[in-house]
Write a structure and sequence with these properties.
The complex is a heterotrimer of chains A (312), B (529) and C (336).
Chain A: H1 3-8, H2 29-39, H3 41-58, H4 60-63, H5 101-136, H6 140-154, H7 157-168, H8 172-199, H9 202-209, H10 214-222, H11 227-250, H12 262-269, H13 277-305
Helix pairs in contact in A: 2-13, 3-5, 3-13, 5-6, 5-8, 5-11, 6-8, 7-8, 8-11, 11-12, 11-13, 12-13
Chain B: H1 2-19, E1 26-29, H2 46-51, H3 53-56, E2 61-63, E3 70-72, E4 75-80, E5 86-91, H4 111-122, H5 137-141, H6 144-147, E6 148-155, E7 158-163, H7 170-174, H8 184-192, H9 198-201, E8 209-215, E9 219-224, E10 237-241, H10 246-254, H11 269-273, E11 278-284, E12 287-293, H12 303-311, H13 315-323, E13 327-329, H14 352-361, E14 368-372, H15 384-396, E15 401-405, H16 409-417, E16 423-429, H17 436-443, H18 459-469, H19 474-491, E17 494-507, E18 510-511, E19 527-528
Parallel strand pairs in B: 1-10, 14-15, 14-16
Antiparallel strand pairs in B: 2-3, 4-5, 5-7, 6-7, 8-9, 9-10, 11-17, 12-16, 12-17, 13-17, 18-19
Helix pairs in contact in B: 12-14, 13-15, 17-18, 18-19
Chain C: H1 2-29, H2 34-39, H3 46-56, H4 62-74, H5 88-123, H6 128-141, H7 145-159, H8 182-188, H9 194-229, H10 232-239, H11 244-282, H12 287-297, H13 300-328, H14 330-335
Helix pairs in contact in C: 1-13, 5-6, 5-9, 5-11, 6-9, 7-9, 7-11, 8-9, 9-11, 10-11, 11-12, 11-13, 12-13
Classes of the chains: A mainly alpha (312), B alpha+beta (529), C mainly alpha (336).
């Protein structure tokens, strides 16, 4: 969603902003990073939740008590274990066709992380490349690229993604492509702005004088120096990707049943909204927690990585 | 304080909910979607017909509520010439059109209105032909331009249709929604005023209800037509509360916010059965879901192969898994609610062993084929993909390896029409309750490169249908169709899979609501306790 | 100043033309034959097929279709819906008031709660209140609002029975719409209780739609406050011994509000995207639901026209915000 940029343009977060940074001796950058990052309790919490999600997703086959699509016909819409009628073999209850909700949520984490990784990779690669080009050739080509991005940004992102998926055909793959397309303008703008400010610096001129090729200049000389804002944006895009993929799934335009994607699960659960609260509650909670975790981490990363944004 | 006020206002809202209707009888129908418009001739969706042709309009002849029998409507009687080429209708006298804000009728319904309603659709030079998009899908779809030669006014209350070829289902066609009769006088006035499209936006009909208001995607409101020719409706107000979500519809039904709802969630059926406020009506739908073999491609040219693959499918398992109880096994290509349905047809019983033997006899082994599965949900097939998977597994047991193929819906229809498939899942929903509308349209030789996805042209079968088409006598037609169904079963161009079951939950206070086999939801004749 | 406005509008035009090209070509990229789709199982005669292709102009080369389309657009004609056969302009603007009403309520809700919360959090930086507000607002920002809506329905409609499940007003009220805004129309009508019915239908959707803007506004207000509070003139004011309330109210707030206004303006896109989900959940008869329905009904002209109109609205609102910002804050005018 478009807000992400607005949010990322908001630098102030008190808990993560060190009040004073006395520099006696140069510290290792990783340590310095962790020093800033760990001061933000929320970010650390987010980081551990993300870590937890990754572990769950990788170990789904071991952790999940049941297979995600296995239907237990004798246990339709069984409530969670602690409620009357529930049992500990289906901790979070079952859905309308008797599938174990917990197992589906666990396997669903794979889908969501997968969506995040793919979407961020595509939009990052595409966005950074276009951004570099726009930055290095600020004339005609740059203007064209920027205008194109303006056009994409003129559409509300979810609507744009929805229409794209309708064109490509509803599936998780197409949902990811659509979301990546909608997200990449943010990377383009960010990269271009960073490149523009780097280009005037001495080290770039020096490389140029030394006869570095344009690709070398772009990817080896300049790009590493504008990584910080990109990493932050990538983290925040990760959460947007999960959220939008879930929204598309909810509208029936994302992952198709029986894939245990959280948004798709919610969409299937809508029919039981007033009868079985658990099928509605848990998938949504899973989405919220993961998105929140990535956003917390993004906030922390911004404070820790981006020296320009650090409050003095 | 704010909170208290807010609570109070909610309480008022709740108490007013049904209080407003005190005295006058108001029936609320939670409909499943918005109508496309209010002129049934322009559209094809059942949702549109529910909101237009049934409450607002009449036809020359009508389907009796709850059956496919054709009864007099705006025509009191009709006669057919011996050659089956001329139909003469005697019109009802003293029928009044609705009086609306924009229109006060100066005369009763007469032959001019009939002529107008058909000319608009059939005559490309008619001043109204191009109004509101000017496409008359159903009129065209039922081949009316080819069938009707002329519509003539004999006198004010007599109209004659001259046909270009004998067509026994013609009268049933006139009972269909697209044949609704509109006011020619209203049309003339609007044309003079330069706003012809008003005829379709603010409809004027002769029907039991009159459109009062439509708020797009939210509410349609009708009031009873006081001067309705068949007697004023027991209901004073009819409201369609547009509620696309099935579970929300049920919620509203339970809360008493509506009285009748269509298309319940299969998952809610059990709860509805045990709900003491709700009466769950059910009936077979006017449809059939089938798998068609491409009879032009080997080895499906051999009827033994088709029969064998029929026997190899466990239909009961499909009904359980795909329809979840909301379906019945189909043995004939027409549903049981249609007249001439042959009860004595014997379906191929599930018998993998016999199927294997029959395949061996036909010299087929290691057959590799495909099953096309539709990408959309239809009443006759709620989940084609799952159905295909079941069939795939069944066939595998008799040594037939099938690959499941699917395309985007438009592409699917186009390619299957062109005969690219080997076997294809599809279905049909009837229009006019006439057997011809299934058998000839889907299995006749004329359709063999179109709607006939089996591309099956079998002379003895086709002859029976052609003969029935030219016979006006229903008993004779019944005999012919019954025989045709037996021929069909023996030749097995399809695997007839299922007819859907339509469930209709209505609240207890609703009196005499009938499920209509043609799929419409009709509220004239319904009362509230 | 005029030059500034003209430049902005000048920048907008090519973008808008691009938007029309994107919306237009999207629909042409759709697989399958639209006419075949409309006909469904029933099929269609080749002759009739050709006739309809010609009627919708699908038979011409794509650039020609585009030029025809643009020509009509200049006359204010976006074509007609395939489903209802009515002009898309009429369809869109008959539903737009519902979305506008919902969006206005949502943004009012977001401002009324988000602004004070952000101000107080900024002033009392580091306090428990500050942390709570920031925690809640980040949660709100991360909220899958379609789920949030369902939760509210479960709680307020299902368990407590306070609010209706869906729709804009109880169907039993009957009056002629005058403005299209239900709250105003119900007041103008003499139906007793209609206003409270409309209000009770509006509350949950407005909360759901307002959640993300609320979170953004609270965060932005807080950071703007922090920024301003650290500026020299505020420090000076403090040093002069002005009471803290006055410092915050008079000096800090006024300046902090400038960026906040921009942020509020930028929520239009967010609101329209959110309206898609919110209206779907609450069966709210607005343009968000209409777009989703059109997509599912494969009503391509409506999708195309709707996309274009929505993009145009977002662009115009952003332009206005931009201009306003330039007006309030002259530094911006020359920065670019």
């Amino acid at each position: 969603m478009a807000v992400t940029t607005d949010m990322s343009a908001n630098p102030q977060d008190p808990s993560g902003s060190p009040s004073a940074t006395p520099e006696a001796a140069p510290i290792h950058p990783v340590r310095e990073f962790w020093h800033y990052f760990s001061e933000n309790k929320g970010a650390v919490a987010g980081f551990f939740v993300v870590l937890f999600l990754i572990v769950i997703a990788l170990a789904a086959d071991v952790v999940a008590p049941h297979l995600p699509s296995e239907q237990y016909r004798d246990h339709l819409l069984q409530p969670p274990a602690w409620q009357e009628g529930g049992s500990w073999s289906f901790v979070l209850g079952t859905d309308a066709v008797g599938r174990d909700l917990l197992s589906r949520l666990i396997y669903g984490s794979r889908e969501s992380l997968f969506v995040g990784v793919i979407v961020v990779s595509i939009s990052l690669t595409l966005g950074v490349s276009l951004g570099l080009i726009a930055g290095f050739f600020p004339g005609f080509i740059g203007t064209i690229i920027l205008r194109l991005m303006d056009m994409i940004l003129a559409f509300p992102s979810l609507l744009m993604a929805l229409v794209l998926v309708a064109i490509l055909g509803p599936s998780l793959t197409n949902a990811m492509i659509a979301i990546a397309i909608v997200l990449q303008p943010h990377f383009v703008r960010l990269t271009r702005a960073a490149v523009m400010s780097e280009l005037s610096k001495d080290y770039v001129t020096a490389s140029r004088v030394n006869g570095a090729g344009i690709f070398r200049l772009m990817y080896i000389t300049v790009l590493p120096n504008c990584m910080a804002p990109l990493i932050v944006q990538a983290t925040l895009s990760f959460s947007t990707a999960i959220l939008d993929a879930a929204a598309l799934g909810f509208l029936g335009m994302g992952a198709q049943p029986p894939t245990p994607e959280w948004g798709t699960m919610l969409s299937e659960a809508r029919d039981f909204i007033l009868r079985a609260w658990w099928v509605v509650t848990f998938p949504g909670l899973a989405i919220l927690i993961s998105v929140l975790a990535f956003n917390l981490m993004g906030d922390g990363l911004r404070d820790a990585l981006d020296p320009k944004l650090k409050r003095s | 304080m704010r909170r208290q006020l807010w609570m109070a206002s909610v309480a008022i809202a709740a108490s007013v909910a049904f209080g407003a209707s005190a005295g006058a009888k108001t029936l609320v129908y939670c409909s499943e979607g918005s109508p496309e418009g209010f002129n049934p001739a322009l559209y094809t969706a059942g949702t549109t017909f529910d909101a237009s042709s049934h409450p607002i309009f009449n036809r020359l002849v009508e389907f009796e509520r709850g059956s496919t029998t054709v009864i007099p409507g705006l025509a009191e009687s009709w006669t057919a010439s011996d050659d089956g080429l001329q139909y003469t209708f005697k019109l009802r006298k003293g029928v009044k059109f609705h009086t609306t804000k924009a229109f006060t009728p100066s005369r009763d319904f007469n032959a001019d209105d009939v002529i107008f309603s058909f000319e608009r659709q059939g005559n490309k030079d008619h001043p109204y032909h191009k109004v509101s998009g000017g496409s008359y899908e159903y009129f065209e779809g039922m081949s009316m331009p080819d069938i009707i030669e002329t519509v003539e006014k004999i006198d004010d209350y007599t109209v004659k249709f001259v046909l270009s070829k004998p067509e026994a289902p013609f009268v049933a066609n006139l009972a269909m929604d697209f044949a609704s009769i509109m006011s020619a006088e209203y049309a003339d006035q609007m044309l003079k005023a330069g706003t012809p499209e008003q005829v379709d936006l603010a409809p004027v009909g002769t029907g039991p209800f009159q459109l009062q208001q439509y708020q797009k995607d939210a509410v349609i409101r009708y009031k009873a037509n006081d001067g309705y020719w068949a007697g004023k409706s027991e209901l004073d107000t009819l409201i369609f509360s547009i509620t696309p979500d099935a579970s929300v519809r049920y919620q509203k039904l339970k809360a008493g916010e509506c009285h009748v709802m269509p298309y319940p969630n299969p998952a809610d059926i059990e709860a509805m059965k045990s709900d003491s406020d709700v009466n769950l009506l059910e009936q077979e739908g006017l449809n059939v879901g089938y798998l068609a073999f491409n009879t032009e491609k080997a080895p499906f040219t051999d009827k033994r192969v088709r029969q064998a693959l029929n026997m190899a499918i466990d239909k009961q398992a499909i009904i359980d898994a795909v329809f979840q109880g909301a379906g019945k096994i189909a043995k004939n290509p027409i549903p049981p609610t249609i007249w001439s349905y042959n009860e004595s047809t014997k379906d191929y019983a599930y018998d993998p062993e016999k199927a294997k033997a029959l395949l061996a006899e036909a010299g087929v082994s290691g057959l590799k084929t495909n099953i096309w599965a539709m990408p959309v949900q239809r009443p006759y097939n709620p989940n084609a993909r799952r159905m295909a998977e079941l069939i795939q597994a069944d066939w595998a047991k008799v040594g037939v390896e099938a690959e499941i193929v699917t395309f985007e819906w438009g592409e699917y229809l186009k390619r299957s029409k062109a005969g690219e498939h080997e076997t294809v899942l599809l279905g049909w929903t009837g229009d006019n309750g006439d057997p011809d509308n299934f058998l000839y349209v889907l299995l006749g030789c004329d359709a063999a490169s179109g709607a006939n996805r089996a591309r099956w042209c079998h002379k003895p079968f086709d002859d029976l249908l052609k003969q029935a088409k030219q016979t006006a006598d229903t008993a004779e037609r019944t005999r012919l169709y019954e025989e045709a169904q037996l021929v069909f079963k023996e030749e097995a161009p399809w695997v007839t899979i299922a007819h859907s079951v339509v469930f209709m939950p209505v609240r207890n206070e609703v009196v005499d609501f009938r499920v209509h086999p043609l799929g419409g939801h009709i509220f004239y004749g319904v009362d509230l306790k | 100043m005029l030059k500034f406005i003209l430049t902005r509008i000048g920048l907008l035009l090519p973008t808008f033309i691009g938007v029309t090209i994107i919306s237009f070509s999207f629909i042409r990229l759709l697989p399958g034959d639209p006419i075949e789709l409309m006909a469904g199982e029933r099929g269609i005669e080749p002759e009739r097929h050709a006739q309809l292709m010609a009627q919708f102009g699908f038979d011409k080369p794509i650039w020609e279709q585009y030029l025809v389309f643009m020509g009509k657009l200049l006359e204010g004609d976006l074509g007609a819906s395939i489903v209802t056969k009515k002009p898309i302009f009429d369809e869109f603007f008959s539903l737009f008031p519902a979305t506008l009403e919902l969006a206005l309520f949502a943004i009012v809700f977001a401002i009324v709660i988000g602004l004070p919360a952000g101000i107080v959090a900024g002033v009392k930086r580091g306090s428990v209140f500050d942390h709570t507000v920031m925690g809640i607002s980040l949660t709100g920002f991360s909220m899958p609002i379609f789920w949030w809506g369902l939760l509210l329905i479960i709680f307020f409609s299902g368990i407590l029975g306070w609010t209706p499940v869906s729709g804009r007003i109880s169907v039993l009220y009957y009056f002629e719409p005058v403005t299209g805004f239900m709250l105003i129309d119900t007041l103008l009508s003499d139906e007793e209780g209609a206003f409270s019915s409309a209000l009770s239908h509006l509350i949950l959707p407005a909360i759901v739609l307002g959640t993300i803007p609320l979170a953004v506004i609270a965060r932005q207000t807080r950071s703007a406050m922090l920024e301003v509070l650290s500026e020299d003139y505020v420090r000076t004011a403090r040093a002069k011994g002005l009471p803290p309330g006055r410092v915050v109210g008079l000096h800090a707030l006024r300046n902090a509000l400038i960026p906040v206004i921009t942020v509020i303006g930028l929520q239009v896109g967010v609101l329209l995207a959110g309206a898609i989900l919110t209206e779907t959940i609450f069966a709210w008869p607005g343009i968000g639901k209409w777009m989703v329905d059109s997509i599912f009904r494969r009503d391509y002209p409506s999708v195309q026209g709707g996309l274009m109109l929505i993009a145009a609205i977002v662009m115009v609102v952003n332009l206005i915000v931009d201009l306003l910002y330039g007006l309030i804050n002259p530094r911006i005018r020359h920065a670019r």
